[in-house]
Design brief:
This protein is an alpha/beta fold and about 150 residues long. It is built from 4 helices and 6 strands, in the order βαβββαβαβα. Strands 1, 2, 3, 4, 5 and 6 form a 6-stranded mixed sheet that branches. A hairpin with a 2-residue loop joins strand 3 and strand 4. Helix 2 packs parallel to helix 3. The longest helix is centred in the last third of the chain and has 17 residues. It starts with a strand and ends with a helix.
């Protein structure tokens, strides 16, 4: 099974830690959403979108590239890192996937070190995350959906 994970990881590489661990599991191509690419997304059986959370949703580059490039009817999944856990962070990316008639396989989110805005004044929140357990859980999540897809 060919897997593509499109990601954005900016401030502390929290999300990058997750996708790099997942990429070591086999035939996984990583695509940084801010880089130009000529990949044919139709060649992939499963497409993941991974991002830190910015203003309570996936980064705008992820949302834009999904809107522009996600083929109709693909199996997709979502990963995110955040300073504070909430359920609604994946809503915007899910809406894009649903508009493309994608088959959503699941969503995994974990804490990630966050020094944005006022959090910088207190030295950040969710220090030490993602930790080894968070990374392992992300890999297990991915392996579970890949094996079912």
């Amino acid at each position: 099974m060919k897997v593509l994970i499109v990601y954005h990881s900016e401030h502390h590489d929290n999300t990058k830690k997750l996708v790099e661990a997942i990429a070591r599991q086999g035939d996984v191509t990583l695509l940084n959403a801010s880089e130009n690419s000529n990949l044919n997304w139709s060649d992939y059986d499963l497409i993941g979108f991974a991002s830190g959370i910015y203003y309570q949703k996936f980064h705008k580059d992820i949302l834009g590239i999904a809107e522009k490039n996600l083929p109709i009817g693909k199996k997709v999944f979502f990963l995110y890192t955040c300073g504070v856990k909430r359920q609604s962070y994946a809503d915007a990316i899910k809406q894009i996937a649903e508009s493309k008639k994608s088959k959503i396989q699941g969503c995994y989110g974990c804490l990630g070190f966050d020094t944005f805005g006022p959090f910088k004044l207190v030295g950040g929140i969710a220090k030490g995350h993602p930790n080894d357990e968070d990374v392992s859980s992300a890999v297990n999540f991915f392996c579970g959906i890949r094996d079912k897809a």
